[in-house]
């Protein structure tokens, strides 16, 4: 498998899932600005015309896009890892959480806050409308270790998104102690700690590369 990723982007969730499953993959870094694949200098848009990560090329050559779909593919492809759902009802709950993270947190809250070109009014609107999603998550996580009754790809995705609070000062985790405790606990999980550390180093290299090119 080939995983096209950018350091600390939402594609980190798939790296976590693959590490959790203990499987080998080729990790192909994509520059988020130029859309150049760093390994060979090719145009990533030839693989995914939208230029978005994660993108996964499976062993049979099928190209998959969209984070939730890729995470569910990895979970189902490697059932022994235990990161998928254990029943039909739980699968629906897994899908529920992947949708919630992708739409209510990822796109609705964090994308406007992280977009350097977004006007301040757009950022203010995102905060006003969507911080309640963190309130919902705070209440749900009270007394819970994971989103399901066990670690799943939904947790890999949520930890990845919560990572972004480091770059979004208006979202202070201290206001949501259950979310903060969940995040800190999962950050120590071996698959997450390894994936995060590796991508942080790649992110620093990316910043240096962009600075040198400016």
Question: Which labels suit this protein?
Answer:
4 strands; 4-stranded mixed beta sheet; Glutaredoxin; 7 helices; 54% helix; Glutathione S-transferase Yfyf (Class Pi), Chain A, domain 2; 2 domains; 214 residues; 7% strand; alpha+beta
Plain-language structure description:
The structure is a single chain. With 214 residues, the chain is of the alpha+beta class. 54% of the residues lie in helices and 7% in strands. The chain has helices spanning 12-21, 67-77, 88-114, 120-141, 153-163, 177-187, 190-213; strands at residues 2-5, 26-29, 55-57, 63-65. Strands 2-1-3-4 form a four-stranded mixed beta sheet, with helices on one face. Helix 3 (88-114) packs antiparallel against helix 4 and helix 3 (88-114) runs parallel beside helix 5 (153-163). It is globular. 33% of the residues are buried. The mean pLDDT is 97. Residues 87-214 form the GST C-terminal domain. Residues 1-82 form the GST N-terminal domain. Keywords: Transferase. It comes from Bradyrhizobium lablabi.
Alpha plus pi helix count: 7
- Kindly report the CATH topology of the largest domain: Glutathione S-transferase Yfyf (Class Pi), Chain A, domain 2
Unreliable parts: none
Q: Characterize the largest beta sheet: strand count, sense, and whether it forms a barrel.
A: 4 strands, mixed
Range of strand content: 5-15%
Average pLDDT? 97
* Alpha carbon gyration radius: 17 Å
Q: Helicity level, as a percent range? A: 40-55%
- Secondary structure tally: strands: 4
| CATH class (first level) name of the largest domain | Mainly Alpha
The helix-strand sequence is EHEEEHHHHHH
**What is the approximate shape?**
globular
Q: Structurally, how many domains make up the residues?
A: 2
Head-to-tail CA distance between termini: 34 Å
């Amino acid at each position: 498998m080939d995983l096209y990723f950018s350091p600390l982007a939402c594609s980190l969730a798939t790296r976590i899932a693959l590490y959790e499953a203990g499987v080998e993959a080729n990790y192909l870094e994509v520059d988020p600005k130029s859309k150049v694949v760093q390994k060979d200098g090719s145009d990533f848009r030839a693989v995914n015309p939208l230029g978005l990560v994660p993108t996964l090329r499976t062993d049979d050559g099928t190209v998959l896009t969209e984070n939730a779909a890729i995470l569910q593919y990895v979970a189902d492809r490697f059932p022994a890892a235990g990161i998928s759902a254990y029943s039909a009802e739980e699968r629906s709950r897994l899908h529920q959480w992947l949708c919630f993270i992708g739409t209510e947190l990822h796109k609705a809250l964090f994308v406007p806050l992280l977009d350097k070109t977004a006007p301040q009014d757009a950022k203010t609107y995102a905060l006003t409308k969507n911080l309640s999603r963190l309130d919902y998550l705070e209440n749900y996580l009270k007394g819970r270790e994971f989103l399901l009754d066990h670690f799943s790809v939904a947790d890999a995705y949520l930890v990845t998104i919560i990572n972004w609070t480091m770059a979004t000062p208006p979202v202070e985790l201290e206001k949501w102690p259950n979310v903060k405790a969940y995040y800190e606990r999962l950050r120590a999980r071996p698959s997450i700690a390894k994936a995060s550390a590796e991508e942080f180093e790649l992110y620093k290299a990316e910043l240096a590369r962009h600075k040198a090119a400016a």
